Amino acid sequence: MSPQDRVRAALKELDLPGDVIEMDSSTRTAQDAADACGCELGQIVKTLFFFADGRPTVVLAAGDRQVDTALLAQLVGVGRKKLKMGTPDEVLAHTGFPVGGVAPVGQAKASDVVVDDSLQRFEDVWAAAGAGNAVFPVKTAALVSAVRGQWAAVTREPA
Q1: I want to staple 7 with a disulfide (CB 3.0 to 4.6 A). Which of 38, 41, 85, 129 is the partner?
Q2: Is-above-0.90 flag for pTM?
């Protein structure tokens, strides 16, 4: 089963309406995805993978924000040195998706999920769907409920 098909299956299993859209152009970066989807940069869900003292943690954040590792470390109860972003190989091994296509649903292994407050600005968002050219539209509240995410403030505006 392709990564995009895993996302399709997860959307169905989680009762999330909509489908995976495979674009002609890249959606690997938040800006690329916003351009391809015709939406605001903030409406792109960045799915970022961390290890908090070895514990897998996924952060969902608006595309126009950056994760503040000090805030995230404090939230998950580890020192900053115990929080590290997953390498591309670790991300692929844990989620089953390549960097630039990590979907918030259909991941290979379970993780704690933190949803940054920055996404509350939008009723509708777009998330990666398993490949660097695939996305799916979703209601923010439905996505957060489906992934059992914990709302928290863990980002800042880019410098």
Answers
A1: 129
A2: yes
